[in-house]
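**User:** Here is a favour to ask of a fellow structure person. Please take any protein you like and set down a full record of it. No explanation is needed for now; the record alone will do.

**Assistant:**
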Amino acid sequence: MVKKSKLLLMISAVLVPLLLAGCSGSSSSDSSDVFSDPLDYFTDSANVLSVKDASLTSCPSATLGQMADAFMSNPSWTDFPSSTGSTIVELTGGMTYDGYPADAVIQFDLSGGSFEAVYLGINDVDQSRIMLSALLTKMCNATY
């Protein structure tokens, strides 16, 4: 059983980067267009702003909002109550996946003063936590 799990881990380590090799941002704007509509900033809820303005420990040089703007086309943020009593902050936007346009949904579970990325969907297909982590890394890299 140990050999089987090591093999699965090795396969995942090889496949995830290959799958994401074709995954890229499709934003047609440049960095000067980050505040194309400054009123959007003031219409975000406090919950959305607490996630959007935060940085991940794996990407301390950029906020999630900057990562979304650099990587996605038309990023949009919303929030809603979860079934567990916390708040879900949801980021949606366009990207390119395996050479084709795709719609992505990333959800963050916000509870108290902290949050965690908990969900990724691409074209309405649930993705693994490994794919979520890899996508957040690509989004971070898009800010450089």
